Recover the amino acids of this structure.
């Protein structure tokens, strides 16, 4: 029988990797919170897929770089689905390709706020509720970084790469800080995945263009990243924390 005592928040889950993660979580017995900021219609489509799998589902619009909205998000989930056991920090923004020397600092600030502050804010709220010292039962956090944090994205998205480098460092430090609270913190670093984020960066066909240069000679699917995330959340990875899974076709 499926265990429905597991409750997950997936930020930015109306599309791409976030949507795939929400659906896979439903398959694995989670009650699922779908978070979005702009596209209610897509969030509802993901919710329909989750509900068809027999999972409890909640849609919450919240801007997760705003601390008060993050607190509201977590409160709504606890009230309607139960205590939160898993968090996936998936929200991310990518702007059009540009050399670093030409990047307005306003753009850099926007990327850092969305890609880094959202992770800090959501991790803080999750830890307050999961920590044993606060009366919680522990839990798991998975941060969605990027292969860009290793590769640097020279001539394209150095601001994005730098923001994901911050997520990597946060993962390492936080995993050590909260291990005593029975909270595991891990990270996935996808790259060259077929999602809309490449269109946001000004090149919808980027994965197809680069596929031949990858050792596996193909782009990845959001479901492949979702499977890695759900493994890191599972009891099968119970001795894994502060670790990274790279999903970039071998690059």
């Amino acid at each position: 029988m499926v265990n429905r005592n597991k409750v997950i928040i997936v930020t930015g889950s109306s599309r791409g990797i976030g949507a795939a993660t929400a659906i896979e979580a439903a398959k694995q017995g989670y009650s699922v919170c779908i978070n979005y900021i702009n596209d209610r219609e897509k969030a509802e489509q993901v919710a329909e897929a989750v509900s068809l799998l027999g999972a409890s589902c909640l849609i919450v619009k919240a801007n997760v770089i705003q601390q008060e909205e993050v607190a509201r998000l977590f409160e709504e989930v606890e009230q309607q689905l139960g205590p939160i056991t898993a968090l996936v920090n998936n929200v991310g923004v990518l702007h059009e390709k540009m050399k670093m020397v030409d990047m307005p600092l306003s753009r850099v600030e926007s990327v850092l706020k969305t890609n880094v502050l959202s992770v800090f804010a959501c991790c803080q709220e999750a830890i307050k509720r999961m920590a044993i010292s606060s009366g919680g039962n522990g839990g798991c956090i998975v941060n969605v970084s990027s292969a860009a944090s290793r590769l640097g994205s020279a001539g394209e998205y150095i601001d994005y790469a730098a923001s994901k480098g911050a997520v990597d460092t946060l993962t390492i430090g936080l995993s050590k800080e909260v291990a005593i609270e029975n909270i595991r913190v891990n990270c996935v670093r996808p790259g060259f995945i077929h999602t809309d984020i490449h269109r946001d960066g000004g090149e919808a066909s980027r994965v197809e263009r680069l596929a031949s240069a990858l050792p596996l000679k193909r782009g990845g699917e959001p479901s492949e990243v979702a499977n890695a995330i759900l493994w890191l959340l599972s009891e099968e990875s119970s001795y894994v924390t502060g670790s990274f899974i790279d999903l970039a076709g071998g690059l």
